[in-house]
Amino acid sequence: MSGNTVQDLLRRRASHLSRSLSVLYDDDPIHVVRASGQYLFGADGRQYLDCMNNVPHVGHSHPRVTEAVCRQMKLVNTNTRFLYEPLVEYAERLTALLPDPLSVCFFVNSGSEANELALRMVRTHTRRRGIVVQDGAYHGNTSGLIDISPYKFNGRGGAGKPDFVEVAATPDPFRGIHRGADAGARYAADAVAAIDRAGVSEFGAAAFIAEPLMGTAGQIIPPDGYLAAVYRGARAVGALTVADEVQIGFGRVGTHMWAFQTQQVIPDIVTLGKPIGNSYPLGAVVTTPEIADSFANGMEYFNTFGGSPVACAAGLAVLDVIEDEQLQAHALRVGAHLKASLAELMARHPSIGDVRGLGLFIGVELVDDPERRSPETDLAERMVLALRREGILISSDGPDHNVIKIKPPLPFSIADADRLAVAVDRFLREAAS
Amino acid sequence: MSGNTVQDLLRRRASHLSRSLSVLYDDDPIHVVRASGQYLFGADGRQYLDCMNNVPHVGHSHPRVTEAVCRQMKLVNTNTRFLYEPLVEYAERLTALLPDPLSVCFFVNSGSEANELALRMVRTHTRRRGIVVQDGAYHGNTSGLIDISPYKFNGRGGAGKPDFVEVAATPDPFRGIHRGADAGARYAADAVAAIDRAGVSEFGAAAFIAEPLMGTAGQIIPPDGYLAAVYRGARAVGALTVADEVQIGFGRVGTHMWAFQTQQVIPDIVTLGKPIGNSYPLGAVVTTPEIADSFANGMEYFNTFGGSPVACAAGLAVLDVIEDEQLQAHALRVGAHLKASLAELMARHPSIGDVRGLGLFIGVELVDDPERRSPETDLAERMVLALRREGILISSDGPDHNVIKIKPPLPFSIADADRLAVAVDRFLREAAS
Predict the structure, then answer these.
(1) Are A24 and B82 inside 8 Å of each other by CB?
(2) Structural domains for chain B
(3) What is the ipTM of this complex?
(4) Do B75 and A295 touch (CB under 8 A)?
(5) Residue A13 and residue B141: Cβ atoms within 8 Å?
(6) Which of B18, B41, B79 sits opposite A104 (nearest CB)?
(7) Cα A399 from chain centroid?
(8) A76-118 residue pLDDT tens
(9) What is the tens place of the pLDDT at every residue in B132-187?
(10) Exposed (0-12), middle (13-18) or buried (19+): which is A415, by Cβ within 10 Å?
(11) Which residues on chain A are in Cβ contact (under 8 Å) with B76?
(12) Cα–Cα distance between A253 and A362 in angstroms, integer?
């Protein structure tokens, strides 16, 4: 019966949805019918532990977010050309969580729209076009963002690097080009060199755009001091700094609300998405009054749905739940526990080359040998499938797809962490036997 | 009290929201607290007749849409990498409303994201980069779309026309460069010439992108036969045709579900937005299997929120209401009545140069004299403000901002139409005295 609905849905997808859209576990995809907290429930009656979805940040279908959205939808959903309380309240609440001088908000519908708008801002403000990004980075699905996403322009179907883009090395201290004690300084020098290349090009250096912790590149935690040195280099040539917090913002890193804070920097522009509305389509750009003023050059910025009363109600409810359920502290505690459990497994399993992360943003890198560190891509894929059979949803990524990514909804518990660690251990024991 | 909340909201907006965001009626903006059908209600207790918002298509806060969204939000909101019924059901329902071979859907979060994706598709499919657009057109707020929107790149703060864009004349039979019986053929020849210019350029002609009826350009209804001739010219050189139905789709034109049908054409790609989710952030691109296949070149297309179960539930509810409340036929009937009432006023008011439109997409063009047709920009602005004082919300647009745009939520009634016509008449009588 459930198998039948899966086949039926796949057949119907094939008729009316593009093959460009992928389905997870294509041999045995999951027909989801409901979800709650950190669990998805299939039409087959099974419960799945969700270790992969960072969008339902405060938990799938959190009743407070649902209630806030429904309450506001019944009243009115309109646009920012009208005045309404939720917009200003949300802008105040959001900017209160960000350091000065990040105080001016723009609301959009997705992380892609946020990064698109950030691109427009840095170019309007600096009157330059060159953009510096990190290798392996992904910033969104529009043409303008694919152009600045090495993950896409160097990937399958990609058209290669555009002239106006300069690429800095992925600041990966485990398997990247620089390792050891001075890796941070050397990666920073590499990025500053890329900024300087843009600076002397015909395009000029408009901005350095980066996730403070990298997601698709393989859960990369840059060495301490890296981002501060890069930002200094950018500012030395008048380039702006953009922190893409779409994947990792809103307390996931545990110690701070924002990942850039773990690198002791304050960007000129922050872009927000995914977790911001707990699945309601919402994104934001927050910048300084100075940059917002440059951008206000006479061209109106209008976003039909962005900053609507309902979107703001969703955003406000997410902030309330993060605070009331102390989810940032929870992410720190559970993340530390899970990281420790996974690190313990390293002693028994040489294929675990690295366990890294902050809060509930964790990566487990699978390699053939702790020293040689060749990627175990196939092992990672088999682990993803084995865990799925056990009812645990997890994904792999990175340029060699050998990094297991862990970024669950924040209610993820100590018991869930233990269940995950046990499953990883069991899979690796069986794989080795 | 209400004045105080308006001042308070304006002050708080000034602190945390960009000046690039405009507010309607800046001397006396409206603090909206609830809405229903075709009415907005202010914190001042006043009811406002909404003649401007085409996004709450089936009526502000329609209970069936709210209920569908809330029901699905309580169950699960996830992404298209999982299987769920609402996605395939919505794709089936939507494509059933479109002519063959438009049968493959992509779901996104806004009209801008839809047009962005259409741009990627036409370039991937044709391996060309040149885009032909109509003068005065607006296709969205990303950099890639501002580049193809003369309304923006030639407007305040605009950077001018990029090399890869060719601009065809606005097919405006009233005040454009071609008038009279052969205007359609002459505008078509102008557009085909632009397509041919792109074709011989270094970029090649990837696509002709146009709203079948133009919105921001001033509620332009092209002459009969125009689009068919342009599409023939595009196809003759292998360029694709994109119909931007973001403003005007879903039955507003009354005689048909889609505006392109009023011009007897079938585009290669249709983009949808604004009304599609009745204010829930949603957009779509529908294309042919052939173009979808070219686009599936190995690069995954992933849109975090696009096509989520909740978005699809909103889309499905909108289709249900359009059908059950027979809103397309209603738009035809009420639109015809309103157009007739406004046309009657032309005899008394020489400043009404033209009344045009299809269904509930109507424009009233104000000019100094029916023959000379110089734009009465100031009169249009004063009319907008006078009607606002009467509790009627309406806007002006077009290159000279002298066209009164009427595009209300579809429940707009005969009585509402009469109220609007009486108010227009009264204003023009007072303005002339």
Answers:
(1) yes
(2) 2-58+326-432 (3.90.1150.10), 63-324 (3.40.640.10)
(3) 0.97
(4) no
(5) no
(6) B18
(7) 16
(8) 999 999 999 999 999 999 999 999 999 999 999 999 999 999 9
(9) 999 999 999 999 999 999 999 999 999 999 999 999 999 999 999 999 999 999 99
(10) exposed
(11) 32-35, 40-41, 60-61
(12) 9
